């Protein structure tokens, strides 16, 4: 832990927020079409309808806000899940959320011929939420109720099941592959502010709820027996965490498709900086998650310019080394 006192933790959180604002500004400015700080400012102060101004207002600004919101949501969801499951590799993908959302979109296109992006968002959120509810219900079966091991196994099983169904539909209908492949890889390209506004209320509830429940998450992290001994209703808290994860991760999948690794990597970085107190981990994870996804999106614009690669590919490239390190550290008990 780098920051130990309350003062330094506040300072670290403020610095992280400043960095987030800077990378958001960079996301608005940098891309295939050359613009600069002055052009960006003029696009909002004296809009003239030029190609540069249109791109800044209608393309880059929405994808910047969406990337920030999705990155923050995935990181906070990952922090909650890692505490809930006692699994250092837990992430929204563990709940089957990504796979459930992807499967819902593929079914909508292949069976019902849906081709509207707004419909994709609604269906992806519903599919993600249903998948998470099924995993939670399966993980709660048995005498001991919801346990970290059962939840992890149920999530892994449902993720594999939905992924298999999705791949099966794509194999049957090759034309479908072209329509959904970019979305399934995770992308904020081409999204509009309306996309974010449709899921922002759910994300907002998730952000606020996660901060409000942070103190109780500290107690839950001590173990169920200790938490019960301190008077905590562990069943209610676990259910609340499950709902918050559905809101955060489900909204993220609906807005940008299934994006991996953010929920795994960022909470570990936040804990290494600010400690294990969830009252600090949750807000810092949100800010760092936004920074990571925005930086990944900026990088995705330049790798194969003039073409762009999905931001989900960039997070995989960035996150894989961290994933390996966390896996080795977690399983070696070091």
Automatic annotation (TrEMBL):
Keyword Membrane in record: yes
Membrane-spanning parts: 12-32, 64-81, 93-113, 119-139, 151-176, 196-214, 281-303, 309-327
Keyword check for Transit peptide: no
Localization in the cell: Cell membrane
Superkingdom, natural source: Bacteria
UniProt-listed Pfam families: FecCD (PF01032)
Coiled coil: none
Membrane topology: Multi-pass membrane protein
InterPro entries: ABC_BtuC-like, ABC_transptr_permease_BtuC
Keywords for this protein: Cell membrane, Membrane, Transmembrane, Transmembrane helix, Transport
Family in the record: Belongs to the binding-protein-dependent transport system permease family. FecCD subfamily.
Protein name according to UniProt: Iron complex transport system permease protein
Organism field: Lederbergia wuyishanensis
